[in-house]
Every structure is written in structure tokens, then in C-alpha cells.
């Protein structure tokens, strides 16, 4: 994993760990032989990520978000991924972090998120075609039986992917920049956020969460929520241009 150079110590104290995700080209959308693929993941299309970008190694934690909003989740451990955060909250955090560090932070685009999650893989999950409870935090098996922990776990408790990113599958769903579109017809192919059109006021979430089952943690899985809503299984990670 390549990490971004450190900022001055005063700024570094509030900055989440960041990895450099290399530029590249990938096929975005449904995976071959994926019985759970659906029309929201179609058509599969080639996307070029034109330049390296920075991405949070972990979802933003309770402790990191509390630096921005001191009253956030006062009884929770600082190492848990922060939840109860709307898309509007997440973008406000990025603006605050930018103002306090001198580096422009934002939410990742949906294409950046999937590219980073895949980390060069064309499998259903970043680690292969199946997912075990020692690889990600989820609750139910595909047969509906409870097999997981039933709660969030501290960031970094499961193996990272090939880009050195943790918790891309499970633990918490993550907001992306993009407005929700129900399929990829007309989607940009340059890695940029798809903002125009779509469902007004609804934003993309990716990755799946601690109370999901594996089919909802697939690399190509996507869904959306109203941008002002807060859920106990939705958080975010930061991105920045280099």
C-alpha cells in the first residue's frame, strides 16, 4: 500500500489514513457468473480512472468524525466506523477537513469506489467468488441464518484488499458522490461522478453492512438512500485528488 505524504502534525491529528489508488482501466458492473447480478449493475462498461487519487484506508471512524462534530455518538468506541451520518453530513465533514488541512477532500465517485474495491480483481468479491465471516463483517448467510457478529466491528479487523483498503465489503455501507440512477445507461466512463439526471435528492451507497447477507456485499452491488437520511449501518470514507 502506498500512503499519502504526511501533513503538518497539527493537521495530521485530524486526518484519516489515506492510501494512493493508482490510475487504471476496469470493467464496472455485473460480474460473470454472478447469479445475484441485477439491472442496476448493467450494462457492464469500461471505465478509465485517469489519474491516481487518495482514498481512506478505512471508513471514517467515530473518533475522526467526533473531531468535526464533538457530540457525535458519545458512548461509542472511537475505533468503530461512524454511522448515523447522512450524505449531507459526510460532505460537510469533507468541507471541514479541507478547510482545516489545506487539501481538498470529497466523497469518492461511485466509479472510484468500485475500482478501489476491486483492486484489480474481476471476481464477485475482492478476495474471490465467495465471502466468509473471517473476511468481512456481515450478519446472515445466503440461507438466512445468523452467522456474523450482529454489530459493527472496529475498522481494520478484516484482511485488506490488494490496494491496502479495509472494510470495502461489509461493516458499514458507504456514501458515494453520485446521484442515483437505476442502471448504467449513459454513465460516464472517465471515473467522474454521475450527478446530472437520476433521482433527485437520492445518493448512491456501496459496500454492504454488518446486518446484511453476502449478496449485498458484492463488489458490483449498489443501492441508494435519500441524501438527508441517517442510518445505523451507513457511513463513508474520504477521497482526494492528488
UniProtKB/TrEMBL annotation:
InterPro entries to which the protein is assigned, alphabetical: CTDL_fold, Sulfatase_Mod_Factor_Kinase, SUMF_dom, SUMF_sf
Gene3D superfamilies the UniProt entry points to: paralog of FGE (formylglycine-generating enzyme)
Pfam families (UniProt xref): FGE-sulfatase
GO terms, molecular function: formylglycine-generating oxidase activity
Ranges for domain Sulfatase-modifying factor enzyme-like: 16-239
Signal peptide start-end: none
Coiled coil: none
Name of this protein: Formylglycine-generating enzyme
Amino acid at each position: 500500500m502506498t500512503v499519502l505524504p504526511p501533513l503538518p502534525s497539527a493537521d495530521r491529528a485530524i486526518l484519516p489514513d489515506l492510501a494512493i489508488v493508482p490510475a487504471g482501466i476496469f470493467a464496472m458492473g455485473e460480474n460473470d457468473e454472478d447469479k445475484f447480478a441485477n439491472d442496476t449493475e448493467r450494462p457492464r462498461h469500461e471505465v478509465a480512472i485517469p489519474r491516481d487519487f487518495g482514498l481512506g484506508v478505512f471508513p471514517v471512524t467515530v473518533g475522526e468524525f467526533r473531531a468535526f462534530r464533538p457530540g457525535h455518538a458519545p458512548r461509542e468506541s472511537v475505533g468503530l466506523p461512524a454511522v448515523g451520518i447522512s450524505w449531507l453530513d459526510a460532505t460537510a465533514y469533507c468541507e471541514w477537513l479541507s478547510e482545516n488541512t489545506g487539501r481538498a477532500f470529497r466523497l469518492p465517485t461511485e466509479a472510484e469506489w468500485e475500482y478501489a474495491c476491486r483492486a484489480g480483481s474481476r471476481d464477485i468479491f475482492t478476495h474471490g467468488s465467495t465471502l466468509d465471516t473471517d473476511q468481512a463483517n456481515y450478519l446472515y448467510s445466503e440461507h438466512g441464518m445468523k452467522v456474523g457478529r450482529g454489530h459493527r466491528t472496529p475498522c481494520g479487523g478484516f484482511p485488506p484488499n490488494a490496494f491496502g483498503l479495509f472494510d470495502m465489503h461489509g461493516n458499514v455501507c458507504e456514501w458515494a458522490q453520485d446521484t442515483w440512477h437505476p442502471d448504467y445507461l449513459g454513465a460516464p466512463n472517465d471515473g467522474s461522478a454521475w450527478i446530472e439526471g437520476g433521482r433527485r435528492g437520492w445518493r448512491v451507497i456501496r459496500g454492504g453492512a454488518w446486518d446484511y447477507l453476502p449478496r449485498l456485499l458484492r463488489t458490483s452491488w449498489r443501492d441508494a438512500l435519500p441524501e438527508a437520511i441517517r442510518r445505523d449501518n451507513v457511513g463513508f470514507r474520504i477521497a482526494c485528488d492528488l
